[in-house]
Amino acid sequence: MDDFSKQKIIWIELTDHPNFALDLDGYYINNTVFFITGKHLKYLTAFLNSKICEWYFDKICATSGVGTRRWIKMYIDQIMIPKISLEQESVIEAIMDNITDNKKISPSVEMSINSLISELFGLSANEFNHVMNAIL
């Protein structure tokens, strides 16, 4: 029961795009919402909302039958999360703090996150462009 009151990443099951949110206040959630607790939550939130993750998730998940993806735990568990250095994590955390403070994300900030995530996977410029074009 303690996990419910911890800081966590929360998301709903049925959505067309990743909608992972960082709950820093320990809200209680209902049975239609999934959550993850642990360390590196800002990095994980940025990663899970990235176009790279969305592209990969599209390859492994089931849909609702009308095209909406099912973001359920058994698929989330299959996502490969790259390890990052403390310096890289600090950059992503600063970006996430800026998003939280401003309560919005600009296209340039979103592109910065996607670029950072693609670097973690070692994607070439062509591979990165392929993923971005496939999702857009």
Keywords for this structure?
single chain, 136 residues, mainly alpha, 3-stranded antiparallel sheet, two-stranded antiparallel ribbon, globular
Could you walk me through the main structural features you see in this protein, from its secondary elements to its overall organization?
It is built from six helices and five strands; from the N terminus they run ββββααβαααα. The chain is mainly alpha-helical. Helices cover 48% and strands 12% of the residues. Strands 3-1-4 form a three-stranded antiparallel beta sheet, covered by helices on one side. Strands 2-5 form a two-stranded antiparallel ribbon. It has one domain. It has helices at 41-48, 51-60, 73-76, 86-102, 107-121, 125-135; strands at 8-12, 14-15, 21-23, 33-36, 69-70.
Can I get a quick summary?
With 136 residues, this protein is mainly α. It has helices spanning 41-48, 51-60, 73-76, 86-102, 107-121, 125-135, and strands spanning 8-12, 14-15, 21-23, 33-36, 69-70.
Q: Assign the structural class, choosing from mainly alpha, mainly beta, alpha/beta, alpha+beta, or little secondary structure.
A: mainly alpha
Stretches with pLDDT under 50, minimum 5 residues = none
What is the spatial order of strands in the main beta sheet? 3-1-4
Give me the Rg, rounded: 15 Å
Question: What multimeric state do the chains show?
Answer: single chain
Envelope shape: globular
User: Alpha-carbon distance between the termini?
Assistant: 39 Å
User: In total, how many beta strands?
Assistant: 5
Give the amount of beta strand, in percent. Answer: 5-15%
Helicity level: 40-55%
Q: Write the H/E string, N to C.
A: EEEEHHEHHHH
Biggest sheet overview: 3 strands, antiparallel
Mean pLDDT: 89
Total helical elements: 6
